[in-house]
Design brief:
This protein is 35% helix and 18% strand. By secondary structure, the chain is α/β, with parallel strands linked by helices. InterPro entries: Glyco_trans_28_C (IPR007235).
């Protein structure tokens, strides 16, 4: 990882990830591991679902209950509309969070605060760092207000860390005049997974916020149920649904690291959304994948176009996938 991280030693670190699916949580695993190895004391501020995930890796850490941002998505393909409709609720939560961080600083007296895409998790008198690959949003030119708001929030942090390297997975999303440091790919998987005897033709990775995650789970389960062969699906506990399990489809809810690596090794092809954390995992694992951007989520649509030249990936839209031969 980048030297910005390696210089943080024997300090108290206050950390919090965005509650937007589990991508921000999973990608922070290698960061927290390194900080622990460097003798730091970590206080993780997160909700219960995030804590359950972290405890599988770090049962020894100190966890503080911290409310997430109030995302309420309709799940009808108008992703950016959902975000803007929720703007004032999000802004209110952000303002409240700033006060909560003040209280946390009084209790824990941290040397540094690290936020993974949480604009309100910072403090004026404590070095505050934000992790983000979206220094520039993939918005049309007329949506300049959104760009301005995003940049304004980022500038309030002392440092901006971009989880990318010479592979340039994030493309133009991380191109900005705003001062930032690239810290390398962040994936909980540390090496290429060992290929085993193929047990599953397709392995579906369900990710993203609700209800998009559950919709994708049920759609993929139904599609694979009429597809020849045996298949598997990995999903978070919040997407649990009895109807997802079929005779030829095994569903695993939040499997541990060992099971995840085993499933990747036993699958011929991965099917997933094109979220940034998923891309980093697949690059690290070197797995072939069919990636389907969430309809209306411009970030995923851009990442699909930008990374289309990588031979391990095949990108198809939701409409194209309906007739895609499996």
């Amino acid at each position: 990882m980048n030297e910005s991280i390696s210089t943080i030693t024997h300090q108290t670190v206050l950390f919090s990830p965005l509650n937007w699916g589990l991508g921000h949580v999973s990608r922070s695993v290698p960061l927290l591991k390194q900080l622990i190895e460097q003798g730091n004391e970590i206080i993780v501020c997160c909700n219960l679902d995030q804590e359950d995930f972290y405890r599988a890796y770090f049962p020894e850490l100190w966890y503080v209950s911290h409310k997430g941002y109030p995302f309420k998505f309709e799940g009808k393909g108008s992703f950016m509309k959902d975000v803007f409709v929720n703007y004032f609720q999000l802004k209110h939560r952000l303002d409240v969070e700033l006060e909560e961080v003040k209280a946390l600083v009084k209790v824990f007296t941290p040397d540094i605060i690290i936020s993974d895409q949480r604009f309100g998790f910072r403090h004026r008198k404590v070095k505050s760092v934000i992790i983000s690959h979206q220094l520039r949003l993939n918005l049309p030119k007329y949506a300049f207000l959104g760009q301005w708001i995003n940049k304004r929030f980022l500038k309030k942090f002392d440092e901006v860390w971009v989880p990318d390297d010479e592979l340039n997975l994030s493309g133009d999303l991380s191109v900005s005049k705003l001062a930032h440091k690239r810290i390398g790919i962040l994936s909980r998987f540390q090496h290429e997974v060992e290929t085993q005897a193929v047990k599953y033709k397709y392995l579906v990775i369900v990710s993203g916020p609700m209800p998009y995650a559950k919709d994708f789970l049920l759609e993929m389960s139904e599609r694979l149920s009429v597809c020849e062969g045996k298949h598997a699906v990995i999903a978070g506990l919040d997407a649990f649904d009895y109807e997802a399990t079929k005779d030829n489809v095994d569903v695993y809810y939040q499997p541990n690291q060992e099971w995840m690596e085993r499933l990747f090794g036993e699958a011929e092809i991965v099917i997933s959304r094109s979220g940034y954390s998923t891309l980093m995992d697949l690059i690290r694992l070197k797995r072939k994948a069919i990636l389907i951007p969430t309809k209306g989520q411009s970030e995923q649509e851009y990442l699909a176009k930008h990374n289309a030249q990588r031979k391990q990936f095949t990108f198809v839209t939701e409409e194209e996938f309906k007739n895609y031969p499996l």
